[in-house]
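Long-time lurker, first post.

We've been arguing in lab meeting about whether magnesium ion would sit comfortably in this protein at all. Half the group thinks yes, half thinks no, and nobody has a model to point at. So I'm putting the question to the forum: if I give you the sequence and the SMILES, can you give me back a predicted structure of the complex? Inputs are below. Any interpretation is welcome too.
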Amino acid sequence: MIFGKNVIIWDLDDTLYNKTEEFADLLDAAMAKALIEDLKVPLDFETAKAKVTESFRIYRDGGEIFFREYGVKPRDLFIAYHKIKPVEKIVPYDNLLDKLMKVPAEQYIFTASDRYASEKILKHLGIYEYFKDRYYSVEDFGVYKKNESADVYIKYCSKIGVDPHDCVFVDDSYSNLEYAKEAGMTTVRIYYRNNSAKDKTYIDYAYKGLLSFLDEITAKAA
Ligand SMILES: [Mg+2]
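Top reply:
Settle the argument with this. Predicted structure of the protein with magnesium ion, as tokens:
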């Protein structure tokens, strides 16, 4: 058990691997390319990329400015972006699978990547076989984000047959934790530079980096 709960649900992107500045820049570039080439947004590459970065900074979503100002449909960007998401550039943690296998709880993943990209990411991280039947994408629930309502967390739990009150939800993005908490879960935030969400009452625990959290929950179990 972890914090008295039997189930742990992991976010994938930037939680089970660390998004470096360099990788974040590649993601912004990939989104700009999808917007221009697939969705025909009439901007040059540098302008589009700068707007993606700005949109992420303001809305925590690189596409939001384009949904508001350029009539881009979230679903179209979701698909075009994930097709070219440069997952091969992710640097996996050493021995991630071994570390996860020591976690004293039933484990699942809930990702805002689509099925196509999340399968590639799990394979790249060396944990695909382990999570093969235990990962779900927002698209499995007909949505493209997991920071809009508690509803998707409740649906997730009913899909895997557990009570939200018996789940720990782990995410780097605190806007997701608000709704996981509302659904009844215990929440853990993984942060990198500093704990910028200290004031958020819906965050139960915060750890600097995935490995410090894994060390603590596996040490307690040992
Ligand atoms: Mg994340």
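For your lab meeting: The chain has a mean pLDDT of 95. The chain is about 45% helix and 15% strand. Whichever side wins, do check it experimentally.
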